[in-house]
Amino acid sequence: MIPSLAVARELDRRGHEVFFVGTERGVEARMVPAAGFQLELIRIGGLKRVGMVQRLATLGQLPLSTLRMYKLLRRRKTSAVFSMGGYAAGPPVIAALVAGKPVVVMEPNAAPGFTNRRIGHFVTRALVSFPETERYFPRGRTEVTGLPVREEFFNLQPKRRDVVFTVLVTGGSQGSRTLNRAARESWPLFRNGNFPVQFLLQTGQPEFEALHAAFAASNLHGEVKPFIVDMPFVFAQSDLIVCRAGAGAVAELAAAGKPSVLVPFPFATDDHQLRNAQAFESAGAAKLVLDRDLTGAKLFEIVSELARDRESLDRMGDAARRLAHPGAAERAADVLEEVTR
Predict the structure, then answer these.
(1) How confident is the model at residue 27 (pLDDT cuts 50, 70, 90)?
(2) Helix/strand number for the chain, H first, E second
(3) Angle at 302 between CA 165 and CA 288, to 5 degrees
(4) Cα 124 vs. chain centroid, distance in angstroms?
(5) Residue 253: exposure state from Cβ atoms within 10 A (0-12, 13-18, ≥19)
(6) Where are the domains of the chain?
(7) Partners of 144 in the beta sheet?
(8) How far apart (Å, rounded) are the C-alpha atoms in residues 227 and 215?
(9) Residue 83 and residue 199: Cα distance in Å, rounded?
(10) Residue 268: alpha-carbon gap to chain centroid
(11) Long-range contacts for 309-313 (Cβ within 8 Å, ≥24 apart)?
């Protein structure tokens, strides 16, 4: 939703009328009205990683939802449809293709999701974050634009070296049990090794109290929070970031030019987080550790190794920065204007 809203705001700034399509149970039901845009509700479910009952229900909803979207596009005289994929994108995108409306998709992951894979050969333009993603779409219709990221990440200056090595561990706003556990297991190792380290940990609400108490008992420097509001500020303080490999996370790492240890969520749809992490590792921007392999000992080993080899750490940061694409929202708006002409 955050990249979609960035594109919507740019289109609105240019004088275009924008509306969203989504479900009442998705985050769009909260975020779109709060941003001042209209949300047209659709009844549709997923097809991937769901049971047979849900799959049959979705297939039953698809024709009627697509017909409703077709009528909606005609009634609102829609010029183009912009899609970031996801199950809610299916009916409006199919309706747009039937109606002969231009469809521009933004695929933020190294491997497209189910919806974008299915409609990939029919889209007008595809905006991707990784060069290897271009093979999923028609030749000549793709462009590497990256994902819209807050400007604060691009404006971060390289961190000056300090005696104390600062590690940010974050599993996202909900936290990650794997990352939380590994961080907790590593604290005695860092303490016993007299390693000059500072931990910044975003735990998510469910495990915050236990981890906050454990960190206080570790006598290490740092801070444990359930949620970090100003993430760019914390990025600026960090020498190394340990996190998942979702599209938003890796885009922020690239924009900030930060070296990272990427631990892909093993149950991500179509294993897209693993593909994202592999792309970053191949570029020399990150270390990839599988979820099942991340332990406190492994985290201690990687952090210790990188802290002793600051040159490698700097090279990883430079490689990450080369994957950044500023101005993605503006470019997406340009493309949408181009296809409508």
Answers:
(1) confident
(2) 14, 12
(3) 120
(4) 24
(5) buried
(6) 2-149+325-340, 152-322
(7) 128
(8) 16
(9) 38
(10) 12
(11) 310/161, 313/239, 313/240, 313/259
**Which residues, listed in sequence order, are joined to residue 240 by a DSSP beta bridge?**
167
Q: Which two tokens stand for residue 259?
A: 């070296």
Q: Which of 111, 145, 115, 125 is nearest to 264 (CA)?
A: 111
The residues, any chain, with a CB within 8 Å of residue 284's CB and separated by 6 or more, are 315, 316, 319
In the chain, DSSP assigns E strands to 19-22, 38-41, 81-83, 103-107, 125-128, 142-144, 165-170, 197-202, 221-225, 240-243, 260-262, 286-288
- DSSP per-residue codes, 110-152: SS--HHHHHHGGG-SEEEESSGGGGGGS-TTSEEE------HH
Residue 46: its pLDDT value, please?
Answer: 46
CA 168 to chain centre: 17
Check pLDDT > 50 for residue 297. Answer: yes
Under DSSP, the state recorded for 51 is -
Cα 30 to the chain's mean position, in Å?
Answer: 19
Query: Which two three-digit tokens encode residue 254?
Result: 């690239």
β-pair partners for 202: 170, 225
Other CB atoms within 10 A of residue 306 CB? 19
For 196-255, write each residue's pLDDT tens digit.
999 999 999 999 999 999 999 999 999 999 999 999 999 999 999 999 999 999 999 999
Q: Which helix (H) or strand (E) holds 192?
A: helix 177-192
Tens digit of each residue's pLDDT (9 = 90 or more) over 40-99: 998 765 445 545 555 555 555 678 889 999 999 999 999 999 999 877 888 999 999 999
Q: The tokens of 276 are what?
A: 């994202």
Could you tell me the fold of the domain covering 2-149+325-340? Rossmann fold (3.40.50)
pLDDT the model gives residue 218: 95
The verdict on pTM exceeding 0.90 is: no
Sheet containing 103-107: order of strands: 81-83, 103-107, 125-128, 142-144
152-322 to CATH, choices 3.30.70.2860, 3.40.710.10, 3.40.190.150, 3.40.50.2000: 3.40.50.2000
* Interacting residues of 100 by C-beta distance below 8 A, sequence separation 6+: none
